[in-house]
Design brief:
Elements (H helix, E strand, L loop, with lengths): L1 E4 L5 H6 L14 E8 L1 H27 L13 H9 L8 E6 L8 E6 L6 H14 L11 H14 L7 H4 L4 E6 L4 H17 L2 E6 L4 E3 L3 E4 L2 E3 L1 E4 L3 H7 L1 H12 L4 E3 L4 H5 L3 H8 L9 E2 L8 E5 L9 E3 L5 E4 L9 E5 L11 E8 L3 E9 L8 E7 L1
Parallel strand pairs: 2-19, 5-6, 5-10, 10-11
Antiparallel strand pairs: 1-2, 3-4, 3-17, 7-8, 8-9, 12-16, 13-14, 13-16, 14-15, 17-18, 18-19
Helix pairs in contact: 2-11, 3-9, 5-7, 8-9
């Protein structure tokens, strides 16, 4: 693989952009001072892979719903109704997600690892920071597979048009108010939400920001902040956390959706995509598909594999297992009480120092942006973000 060294972005400049989580706990920079170099054919392959995979996920989710497989893939029972309600109506639009992919830059085929469809991280890094890296290093800012910002503007407008074209947005838009929410005390999540709020404002909406503890919810009336009712609500709070930690809220939100008092983003059905259990469904529906890795709820006999919880983040509770069933590497975490999925192991591209690289392809109506994470064999919360350049 090819890497190009760059002058690092200084912290003052990053903070001027609103990017304040630039330094890891060991005082090292979270943003790598180099770019992954890919060629146009590799960029096109990432684009096509994201589009193909999304269509496959739609088929897999429909299969789960038609065959009542919610429990099998680990979906909390108190979200089943809201998932069904959101799936059946076109107004519950999927704003964005991120595919994690192996391969693609090392002459090896692209393989799906998982789909972060509900609350994906690295949005700010992909849409803003890697563009700034090119600009500050006097490189061609267009030399990326990165139309994420523009794709989000248009996808926000599709909430009104409900079709590919966004030309009819202004004539059909009626001044809807859009509320954006995160928890308190997490700068990364808050500023990511505020970026999305900014993009929605650019798309044409009347927007407001509030912390989750400032919002009032009513089954009959909808979602309120500071006395105002909001028809549209974005929350960077995982659906499974709402189900497991705020079960009363899960039921209220279900009634709000049933009573058509608000539309929530990302929709509840994205939890079907988010669950790693759907990787097993995909393998059942598309066995030996070139983009997929064999996946099962039982250990894969006689082959190297990875075990991971159906809901987990930043490598938590992920284990690499060799052909004899012995653990090679593991990251312990609080996610170990979730159902476990087994997925065939695939090598990530590595650089000369032995660091692994995982591609993240964002999807907003279509595949629209690429970024990389660099770390060990299991990418954890100390992994670095690495931008890219196409040439």
């Amino acid at each position: 693989m090819k890497l190009q060294k760059t002058a690092p972005l200084d912290t003052a400049y990053l903070e001027s952009l609103g990017f304040v989580w630039h330094t890891d706990s060991d005082e090292s920079s979270y943003i790598a001072d180099e770019l992954v170099v890919i060629d146009p054919m590799e960029a096109e392959a990432y684009y096509e892979s994201g589009n193909t995979l999304y269509e496959m996920f739609i088929e897999a989710a429909q299969h789960v719903i038609d065959n009542n497989l919610f429990h099998e893939i680990g979906i909390p029972f108190n979200l089943v109704d809201i998932i069904k309600e959101s799936w059946e109506s076109d107004v519950h639009w999927h704003l964005y997600g991120r595919f994690d992919l192996a391969g693609g830059i090392d002459g090896k085929p692209i393989k799906l690892l998982e789909f972060n469809a509900d609350t994906p991280t690295a949005l700010f890094e992909t849409a803003i920071i890697q563009w700034a890296m090119l600009k500050r290093n006097d490189m061609d800012e267009e030399s990326q597979f990165n139309g994420l910002y523009e794709a989000l503007v248009e996808n926000f407008q599709r909430l009104v048009t409900l079709e590919e074209s966004v030309e009819a947005f202004e004539e059909n838009y009626e001044g809807w108010k859009f509320l954006f929410t995160s928890i308190r005390g997490n700068a990364e999540e808050e500023n990511t939400v505020r970026l999305l709020q900014h993009i929605a404002s650019e798309a044409g909406y009347i927007t407001e920001f509030a912390y989750i503890d400032e919002i009032e919810f009513s089954e009959e009336e909808g979602i309120f902040f500071d006395g105002e009712n909001y028809e549209l609500w974005f929350k960077l709070i995982p659906w499974e956390d709402i189900a497991l930690e705020e079960s009363d809220l899960a039921m209220i939100l279900t009634d709000i959706i049933k009573n058509q008092k608000a539309i929530i983003f990302n929709p509840a059905y994205t939890l079907l995509f988010q669950s790693k259990g759907i990787l097993k469904i995909l393998w059942d529906l598309y066995p030996n598909h070139p983009l997929l890795l064999e996946s099962s709820f039982e250990p894969l006999m006689g082959q190297k594999q990875v075990s991971k919880p159906v809901f987990g983040r930043e490598g938590g509770s992920v284990t690499i297992i060799d052909e004899n069933g012995m653990e090679i590497e593991k990251i312990s975490s609080e996610y170990e009480n979730h159902k476990i999925l087994y997925q065939a192991y695939t090598e990530l591209p590595t650089d000369a120092e032995g660091f692994s690289y995982q591609a993240g392809v964002f999807y907003a109506y279509e595949a629209c942006g690429l970024g990389f994470r660099r770390g060990g064999k299991i990418l954890d919360n100390m992994a670095k973000f690495v931008g890219h350049i196409v040439r």
